Amino acid sequence: SFPNCEAVLDVIYNPLRTPLLLQAKEKGLKFTGGLYMLVSQAAQAARHFCNEEISDEKVEEVFRSLALSVQNIVLVGMPGSGKTTIGREIAAKTGRKLIDTDDIIVERAKMSIPEIFEKYGEAHFRKLECEVIADFAKEKELIIATGGGAVMNRLNSDALSENGRIYYIKRDTSTLATKGRPLSKNTDKLQEMFKMRDPI
């Protein structure tokens, strides 16, 4: 609707990246959310009410610190690439809570992932996965280890991007763990999956 648009500002600061900002990013536009404005307002309030001068450098430092501290760390990658293991290591070093979406699905469904696939099929599993991601992506300061196919659903990617910084754990398919992974049993199928998911 705005062919000459060069940049997008959304004054909302929770989530860090609103759907509007994600659209701007996708179109290659400059964009920013409302967190910087919030920090600047606090600096102005300190000057106005407390007679305290806060430098632009301090505003920048507080903004960057806040943005980093509230963002989720999201791990994506092929099944068996080590997302959960890496997530545990990061959790131990940072004190953040690790959410493994596959574990939450198993907990909620009260059955293993292979059982879910066998009894209800992949579509049902993907629906459960989408619900879990929608629930936890809204939160802050988490480490979220996703299932291997989570990125194939645009709703998941967008939800995870709102409050998260996404890291792709990329390993050669020959080194991926396959035990207990219904879609990773066949080597050819695994290669095919990788070709589809890698660009995303």
Describe this structure in words.
By secondary structure, the protein is an alpha/beta fold. The protein is 52% helix and 13% strand. The chain has nine helices and six strands, in the order βαβααβαβαααβαβα. It has helices spanning 19-26, 35-50, 56-70, 83-94, 101-109, 113-120, 122-137, 154-163, 187-197, and strands at residues 7-9, 30-32, 72-77, 97-100, 142-145, 164-169. The strands form two sheets. A four-stranded parallel β-sheet has the order 4-5-3-6. It has a two-stranded parallel sheet with strand order 1-2. The two termini are 26 Å apart. The model has no long low-confidence stretch (mean pLDDT 93).
Secondary structure layout:
Layout: E1 7-9, H1 19-26, E2 30-32, H2 35-50, H3 56-70, E3 72-77, H4 83-94, E4 97-100, H5 101-109, H6 113-120, H7 122-137, E5 142-145, H8 154-163, E6 164-169, H9 187-197
Parallel strand pairs: 1-2, 3-5, 3-6, 4-5
Helix pairs in contact: 2-3, 5-7, 6-7, 7-8
